[in-house]
Amino acid sequence: MIVFDIETGPAPEETLRKFLPDLPAAQHPGDFDPSSVKLGNTKDQAKIDAKYRDAAAKHAEAVAKFEEDQKTAADDHWAKFIDKAALSPITGQVVAIGYYSANNGAFVHQDITQKSEREMITTFWSQFSKNEHSHRSMVGHNIFEFDLPFLVRRSWALDIAVPPNARKGRYWSDLFVDTLDYWNLGQRMNKPAANFDALAAFFKTAGKPEGTDGSQFYDMLTTDYDRAIAYLKSDVEQPAAWIDAMGITL
């Protein structure tokens, strides 16, 4: 069997800007209105002028704070959008695909620093067709809910042909094996929590490297390449051990 895993990242900024939701409008302080200054019974022009200056200064501070707050809000709005962008095939892209052969322990991968997203996805479907011919399973964790739908939708976006047998009606090809689907044992309601780290702890494998998760992969890929690839390698090696532990013969 071959275990695979995809890693995703945000789409290029010019694409993301098209989908960024509008930031809710805030109330601008407006122009300074001298008539809003409360003068009381003051007749002393010097005191009146001082009140106007004080009010104008406070208004200028409010305008400056408003503009600063709006910039902070816009930056936060963008950061939160970017943080979730990789999870959607509309605002995200495939940035790496790793493969692990349980037969010989070989690990290979492609990533966006070497190959385009189009090349990576085309290679994946080519691998599927080869495995289909050799009746060799393709295994992954949560691939029915995330990896495969993401790959198909990105294929649509890039006009890449998806093999007709990859999906049969409502179901994925029997070639695909999802460790999470096996773990659930057909349960649809009240399914036990079984994220990657939970299964790793249960089956006594290493789990995700401490302090890291998939949302950080793209940043790792661009700032600490070796660490990113080690992370990807771990993500495809461990499900192979879980399959063995569950006694599943593929």
UniProtKB/TrEMBL annotation:
> Which GO molecular function terms does the record list?
exonuclease activity; nucleic acid binding
Sorted keywords for this record are:
Exonuclease, Hydrolase, Nuclease
The keyword Hydrolase belongs to this UniProt entry's keyword annotation: yes
SUPFAM superfamilies (alphabetical):
Ribonuclease H-like
What is this protein's record name?
Putative 3'-5' exonuclease related to the exonuclease domain of PolB
